[in-house]
Each structure stands twice: as structure tokens, then as C-alpha cells.
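Follow-up to my earlier ticket, as requested here are the two runs.
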Amino acid sequence: MGLFSFIKDAGAKVFGIGKTTEEEAAEAAAKANAEELKEEALVAKRLETTVKDLGLQVEDLSVFIDDDAATISGMAYDQATREKIILVVGNSNGIATVDDQMTVEHVEPEAQFHTVVSGDTLGKIAKTFYGNAMKYPVIFEANKPMLEHPDKIYPGQVLRIPALD
């Protein structure tokens, strides 16, 4: 008798038992996708909780994460609150973009945003935007409660730079 050759994955199709390599791969991909969606939902809920814990006034806040993009919606009390929520979400590990779908109850002028680079200090940033390094407390206050100390900023962090009154 001798050695017989067969098509490796045909048995599952012919007899309806087992799974083909393609079926196993599809199931593994579906399971990985489900795990990723579950993780993204958990991260979104954590971000919503963080915003509430920071005392930022927003109604019906919703954060949705898809891969490295976050979409936020809800009604912020004012423009400063809206921008702080954007920063809380955007400055989180793994988030590359934030799609802001929020509305604002009390409309105000929008602030500028600045991405911190190596060597930046709040004083240096204030000098750039306001022409006076001693205006750094304005930037610090505009980024509370996300900033706990004026000296604790890091490269890649995005800060609100409000207009001076």
C-alpha cells in the first residue's frame, strides 16, 4: 500500500468536522477584534470617569474610541471646559486624534493649543504667546486640574493657551 496524499483542509469541508485553517484564522481575528473593542470601551469609560473626577462641567459626556482615534460628545458648560475635556482625552496614552463633537452652553473665544517640546517651560511658552514670561500662571491656571504643578509638563503634552483678557 504506500503513502497517500490528501488535501489537508478538505476533511473538515467533506465531513463537517473540525475547522479549516481559514475558519480558524477568521475566528481568531474575530476574537482579537472583540477583545480590542472591549478594551477600547473600557478606556472610553475610564476617560469619562476621569473627566467627571476632575470636576469638569459637562452633560451627557460620551467618549468613543476606535483604534487611536477618540470621538467625544456632550454639552460642556463653557469653551474652557470643552477644551480641557479635549486635552484630557487627547493627552491620554494611545490617543492620536480627538474628534470634538461637543456643544457649548456658554460660548467664549477659543484658546490656542501648544504642543510641549523638549526644553519648554510655562515661562518660555508664555513669552512666546504673550510676550511676557511672567504670564506663565495664566497658562498654568488654564490647564488645571490636568496640571498639578507649573514645572511638571512633558514633551508631547498639549496645553491650552487662552487669550489674555
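Run two:
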Amino acid sequence: MTQHDQNDHRRSHGHGHEHGHGHGHRNDADLADLLDLDAEVHGSYLGDLTEWLGRHAPVAPRAIVDVGTGTGTGSLALARQFPTSEVIAIDRSPVMLDRVLAAARGQGVAERMRVVQADLDLGWPADVGGVDLAWAASSLHEVADPDRVLREIHDALTPGGLLVVVEMDSLPRFLPDDPGMGRPGLESRCHELLAKADWNAHPDWRPHLGRAGFEVVEQRGFAVDADPAPPRTGLYARAHFTRIRAFLDGQLAADDLAALDRLLDDEDPASLLRRGDLTVRGSRTAWAARRP
């Protein structure tokens, strides 16, 4: 993925909070809001995922690191799954880390949460080591040199420690195939064009993990399927399709652009905020890998 495409992807999906450079506090605050919505809309799989990693993780890990934490959805899920562990949340953005601490206080786990501001493109933070479990959700593919970061995570883990890498397999889907206006298949046509632009691109991490010295324990998929959709799905879908509309202007057929405009017009009866037929569909892949 080129830097340009990474930036487009980052603006569209809230990933890359670890890698992106030059973000101001206003942009980070907007991104944090989108990440919080993303967690609310897509969070149904997290319980299954953390339960699964718990079967592979060391018993009662002393310290856990969340690599590219964003607003802390993963950090908080790990704190709930492992109630005696210290959780270290790493992100380049102080705005994100402020959100993590606020959420940790709200959930009563602030005393076990430590935040570290660091840009992993500049190197692993010197004060993060001896951890038993590492988590990298939708962040590893955004760093400039993931193989180097994987080696640094490997070195930060204790022998027998576990790394879990999580990626979104495809862009989320919200609409029925026939949205009741224009031609059926609007969302699929959007996704086809976005795939050609490498939106949401990530590698199979198995060979990268092996080169970094890890032993892959298991790879598993997790479905995201919420019907009916969570209450604020319309808001999230509107943010999602706003970015799609801007990116695909000049690429989609005129009737598809007109349909997107209707979806984004809050006064239109067919708008995303007024629809009663939204669902949330998607999937994640997770790789569990152990340091020998």
C-alpha cells in the first residue's frame, strides 16, 4: 500500500493511529470519535476474540501491551479479560491516549492502565519490555516497517509470551443488496473500486511472524454480524459513506453517485440516518503467535 493510499485508508476507517504523521489535535479528535463509533458498531466480536486469545495466552499475564491502541477498545477488553494484569497502551497521539485513560477511569481499571506516547516508526519505547502478551489490532499494517516492529515486539515479550495480530478482512457492509433506489448492488460496486485502490489491504502475517522469530499457534476468523444494527450504526455508516463518496467521485457512474448523495442527505427518507434496514456485516482475522 502506498503512503497516499494508507492516508486515504486511515481517514476512512480510523486505522493507522499509530503510523500517521502530521495529524493535528483536531484531526486526532475527529479520528478518535470515529474510532469510538467503530468500536460500538463492530464490537460484537471482541468478546469471542479475547476469550480465544485467553486460551493461548500465558496464565495470568503480568503485563500486556496494546500496540497502536487508538481510543483503547482493545486495551479495555484485555483489562476485562485479565483482571490482574497491567495493560500498557502505546499510541503516537496524546489525544488518543487521553481517551484511553478517560475510558479506563470510567470502567474502573485506570490503576492497571499505563499509557506510552510513541511513534513506532521511530523505534520501540525503551521502557516497554518484559511483557507476556502483545496485541496489535488494525495497526501493524500501518507502520512503515512492520517486520522491524515485529522483531521489536518479539524482543519485548518474555519467553513463551504471545502476540495476537488482528486485521479487518473486508470493508464493513451496512446496506441490503437493493437499497430501494438506483440499481441493486451499490455497496458491492463501491467495494470493488476501493479494493482496486488497496483500501483495507493487509498481508498474510504468517511469514512475517516466522521471520521475526515467532511460532504461529493458530489463525482464526471472527464474524461481525449485527441484525438489528446497534443504535448509532447510522452515524457510523454516514461517516463511512461520506469518505467513500469523496474518494470515488469521478469513478462511480452518475446514478450511483446520486444514490450515495441520497444516502448522505439527512433530510431524504432514504438517508442512512432514517433507514430501518441497516445491518453490520464483516469479519476479522486473528493470528496468535508465540515467542519460543
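The only thing I checked on run two: The CA atoms of residues 58 and 161 lie 7 Å apart. Let me know what else you need.
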